[in-house]
Amino acid sequence: PTNHLDLSSCVWLEDHLRGYDKILVITSHSQDFLNGVCSNIMVLQRSKLKYWAGNYEQYVKTRTEQETNQMKLYAKQQEEIKHAKEFIASCGTFANLVRQAKSRQKMLDKMEEAGLIEPVHQEKKLVLKFPECGRLVPPLIALNDVAFSYSGKKKDYLYKGLNIGVDSDSRIALLGPNGAGKSTLVKLMCAELMPTEGTVQRRPGLKIGRFSQHSNDQLEPELSPVEYIQKQFPGMFKDVQDWRTAIGRFGLTGTQQMDKISKLSEGLKSRLVFTELALRGPNVLMLDEPTNHLDMECIDSLADAINSFQGGLVLVSHDFRLIEQVAKTIWVCDQGITEWKGSIRDYKDMLRKKMAEQTKGGIDSGTC
Fold first, then answer.
1. DSSP bridge pairs for 347
2. Strand residues in 253-360 grouped as ranges (E)
3. Quick one: 146 and 181 in the same domain?
4. Which SUPFAM superfamilies match (predicted)?
């Protein structure tokens, strides 16, 4: 439910649903949202549902503890089985040991009848990685006295007098309500839009890795992922297996690589977009709502990839946890740009207090 909401709407919905007094079932990739709303977690794994009490954070803690204990018990039982089998094998036909061997065998039979402890099934961890990039002389992107409106008229300016820049060590999150101009600012930085006033300078040789809210729609649905990447980067690899390996690094494996893109889920399409983005070898990542179709595992892997990336980052996201993981600087877009000096948690608390004040004043906080 949070996919296309801004941060203030996410906070409002979280608070509203927390007080909802009827049955509520949520499918979500937002750990922060699940922590704030849910009292129980259902996990679908290997075609089975398992139930856990508590919110998402409590579920992770409890599951980790249980799986650790299960592996200890599994290791202990396997050691007992090993010793019992070794003893039985060593007894041979010695009369004085045959009775003991039979006793050990009965013990093994009872253990099997009762059901042996199974090892914890570990899902293969998805590891995303952006390639190393050369560090260019800063600033990589500089906005000088920039003003912009879609109409070109001063009275409609979303921004005016902007003097900001992006460097290789920038880790910037853009916050603000829907319609405040977050995506517009990214488009100005990427030269998808031209400023009404002022200039936008980009370092010669700069490569921008762009993920937009509509990137999935720009893929060619009748091609397979392998065919699509081959078309985007002709001659990069000679052997088909090399193409498949490159795509596999972003979690597209097996038949997914050869099926038509139209048959892929939105999450897999997003992984294909990230494959294309990485192969371009960017110096700066411009990510506009990259998590909309990613699952939790992929979001965490994306955060790890961003943190190990050597270039700059400009991020637009409604995912509080991702922002907390990767952003060093927070810019609030709302009739201009101001730097938020606190943490993303402080910002969330501010939104919550602001909506509480509006509610007391008789304003519908759902319109924030």
1. none
2. 284-288, 312-316, 329-333, 337-340
3. yes
4. P-loop containing nucleoside triphosphate hydrolases
